[in-house]
Amino acid sequence: MSAYEWLIAEQKIDYPTALTFMEERVAGIAQNQAPETVWLLEHPPLYTAGTSARDEDLLTPERFPVFLTGRGGQYTYHGPGQRVAYVMLDLKRRGKDVRRFVHDLEEWLIQTLAQFGVKGERRQGRVGIWVNRGGGREDKIAAIGVRVRHWVSFHGVALNIDPDLEHFSGIIPCGIRQHGVTSLWDLGHTPTQDEVDMALKTKFFEVFGSFG
Q: Any catalytic annotation for residue 174?
């Protein structure tokens, strides 16, 4: 199946609904019965716990709903003003190389941020994309957490456009205490969600090539 879908949710999607969709779509892709898919959406405020999450990193468990998830990583916040991109690709068609897939996700985010004048960077030993704020300060602007089943990827990335950054205070994001979080708007760049979506789509195809 060579067709693909690029989906943009018009409404906020609760996490269980998103997870159900991904589970069904991944199974379909693995059986060559569904198209590869990228799904852009927003969640209502919530925390998710990856497979490496530690209890002590959830500081205010009563604040927002908390969902256990099979993706890699630790605790992450999702909420309004953050663009989540769930990426469901058949890695059998891409060399069965998970490290390359994650590297390409990073490159996708870096190139998208560059469209808005922001230099996103990788950091050895730290997952996600980071911004050097000067004076030794580095803040995370995008998170990455993936899972692969039958060589089909799901979960994906989360890019901070203009979320309420105070909401991150209920967790130790990704278990990293010595660094903070930021967003495009926090850095003084104020694109609309539609502008970010367009940049994400353009740069996705530049990095990953065509689907299928």
A: yes
